[in-house]
Specification:
Blueprint: H1 2-18, H2 20-27, E1 43-48, E2 54-60, E3 67-71, H3 82-88, E4 93-98, H4 113-127, E5 133-137, H5 139-151, E6 157-161, H6 175-195, H7 197-210, H8 212-221, H9 228-240, H10 243-253, E7 269-274, H11 282-291, E8 295-300, H12 306-309, H13 311-323
Parallel strand pairs: 3-4, 3-5, 5-6, 6-7, 7-8
Antiparallel strand pairs: 1-2, 2-4
Helix pairs in contact: 1-7, 2-8, 2-9, 3-13, 4-5, 6-10, 7-9, 8-9
GO molecular function: monoacylglycerol lipase activity
Protein name: Alpha/beta fold hydrolase
Keywords: Hydrolase
Length: about 325
């Protein structure tokens, strides 16, 4: 009986520490493409903003090529772009940015979308980027929309992938349910997370290591065609992000609404939606494209993490968009 108990304890310990591997294999497709390995970046920068926020940036690609600034979403980091780096780094100056409190950037002072947009201006100025293409995913595209409503004169074009023009609870899969739950349940819970971040941080790591969180993220972000590594990667990035940052970021996103201001974005815009995105439904992306004068909508397959799950579709759409930009537009010098 004693030996059986020891075996059970050992098995439970192994499941707690390494359960993410069999879970990711079970939830993923073997057809998922092998994720490219990243080489060390050419440059690294920490950019200090007047409001106290600090952004982190890595740069790769030819020095004088057209710059593309990659801005991830809430709970993500520059680690989410391996396929895009591999695709664009030979022809473009690839600038990867970590938002405050994400990746290597220290904890934020202010996560409001407007403050992050002001910080993006600091990043562009600090790095000396001329007429960059801005590419945002999810909340990153919301930051870029806010930035371009005020500053699109110094931007060549934008790519807005799976972002919302308003409170994301209004554009997710079950908007009526989420709106009903927002004030009585969701907002109080997020404030509770901020007050008890250590508990949620430990719980987040245990759920990642054991594989429990992978069930949720497979449903939220993918359709099943991702590789096991990609599912673990997204889960690990989220586990690394402080719970109070995730909670505050969501609270700030709830205040976002730029629908009336979208016509002020006068530059070319490619707006990407995903047919199976449960986080931001593709109809929201269609609305964004239809309200930007030079907006173009393109739907890709997969879910919210289509940039990992169907990178050929995503990169191909962006590559075609960039190749067909008017030659009269200013190029990077």
């Amino acid at each position: 009986m004693g030996n059986i108990k020891k075996v059970l304890i050992l098995s439970a310990g192994l499941a707690l520490m390494f359960g993410r591997y069999p879970v990711s294999w079970f939830l993923s497709s073997r057809r998922g493409r092998r994720t490219p390995l990243r080489r060390p970046p050419v440059e690294r920068h920490f950019i200090n903003c007047p409001d106290g926020n600090v952004f982190y940036a890595e740069i790769d690609g030819p020095e004088h090529a057209q710059p593309i600034v990659f801005l991830h979403g809430l709970g993500a980091s520059i680690e989410q772009w391996p396929f895009q780096i591999a695709y664009f780094k030979d022809q473009y100056r690839v600038v990867l940015v970590d938002l405050p409190g994400h990746g290597r950037a220290p904890k934020p002072v202010d996560l409001s979308i407007d403050r992050l947009a002001s910080g993006l201006a600091e990043v562009i100025g600090h790095l000396g980027l001329k007429n960059p293409v801005l590419y945002g995913h999810s909340m990153g595209s919301m930051v870029i929309m806010s930035y371009c409503i005020r500053n699109d004169h110094d931007v060549k074009a934008v790519v807005l992938q799976h972002g919302s023009f308003t409170d994301p609870l209004k554009t997710c899969q079950y908007p009526m349910v989420m709106q009903l739950a927002k004030l009585p349940l969701i907002v109080p819970f997020l404030h509770f997370v901020k007050r008890n971040s250590l508990v949620f941080r430990v719980n987040g790591w245990l759920c990642y290591l054991s594989g429990l969180s992978l069930f949720l993220y497979r449903y939220l972000f993918f359709t099943g065609e991702q590789s096991a590594y990609q599912l673990r990667l997204v889960s690990k990035i989220l586990a690394r992000t402080a719970p109070e940052v995730l909670a505050e970021g969501l609270l700030q996103c709830f205040k976002f609404n730029v629908r009336k201001d979208l016509p002020k974005i006068a530059i070319p815009a490619l707006v990407l939606g995903a047919g199976h995105d449960r986080v931001i439904r593709s109809w929201a992306n269609r609305i964004i494209a239809s309200n930007i004068p030079a907006g173009r909508f393109k739907q890709v397959g997969a879910g919210h993490q289509s940039l990992l799950e169907v990178p050929d579709q995503v990169n191909g759409a962006i590559g075609d968009f960039l190749n067909h930009l008017s030659p009269t537009l200013p190029l990077s010098k």
